[in-house]
Design brief:
By secondary structure, the chain is α/β, with parallel strands linked by helices. Helices cover about 55% and strands about 10% of the residues. The protein folds into two domains: about 80 residues, Rossmann fold; about 70 residues, Arc Repressor Mutant, subunit A (Orthogonal Bundle). The protein contains five helices and five strands; from the N terminus they run βαβββαβααα.
């Protein structure tokens, strides 16, 4: 583990952050002047890479010198800068940053902010994924229900029997019920469009 820059030593209790720490990518205009920042993050136990060295880190620490630049919106990020001003902090937060730190850095606070922001980003990504799965499941259920309704009407069946027949057929075909239902609905819609086109042609003739 790298040591912290001079003057930023932490006690064992202070330097204990929740493990595992998220991987971090440091994006800097010029690496040299920010070596202390790199050493400080590594000293806290973070696995730090520079831009271009690793793909899709959990967190980006974006070093800003001057105006706020565009950054990869797919990653959570924290801004660090030499300028200590409310205007710069507001610009960073408005740009999507999870935090803003100005030199000289409190490395412990920066490390905690990185860990918290990374955790929040992972939780949000997980929630988004669960929501997408739930939405897809609801759409699938609605499609299956539509096909069951068609079978009920066509063969004069009760709902339970119509679903049972669809399920038996899916097993025979070794396909998922929702997959078959989606295909049947698409075929039905295509047939309806064709019939409407034929009907329209007959009316015009």
């Amino acid at each position: 583990m790298a040591s912290l820059p001079k003057g930023t030593e932490l006690s064992r209790e202070e330097s204990t952050l929740v493990r595992p720490l998220p991987p971090v990518r440091l994006e800097v205009p010029v690496a040299g002047p920010w070596n202390d920042l790199l050493a400080g993050l590594k000293g806290l136990g973070f696995d730090v890479s520079l831009a271009g060295e690793a793909d899709a880190p959990d967190m980006v620490v974006l070093v800003v010198e001057g105006s706020f630049p565009a950054t990869d919106a797919n990653n959570a990020f924290i801004v660090v800068a030499r300028e200590r001003s409310l205007r710069a902090a507001k610009a960073a937060i408005a740009g999507g940053a999870s935090g803003y730190f100005a030199a000289p850095f409190d490395f412990l606070s920066l490390g905690v902010a990185i860990s918290v922001a990374a955790g929040q980003a992972r939780a949000l990504a997980s929630m988004t994924e669960r929501t997408a799965r739930l939405h897809a499941s609801m759409e699938g259920d609605q499609t299956v229900s539509t096909v069951v309704g068609i079978l009920m009407e066509r063969f004069r069946l009760q709902r339970a029997e119509a679903y049972a027949r669809l399920r038996r057929y899916s097993r025979t075909e070794r396909r998922k019920v929702v997959e078959l239902a989606t295909e049947l609905v698409a075929s039905s819609e295509e047939l309806s469009r064709t019939m409407r086109a034929i009907e329209s042609g007959l009316e015009q003739s």
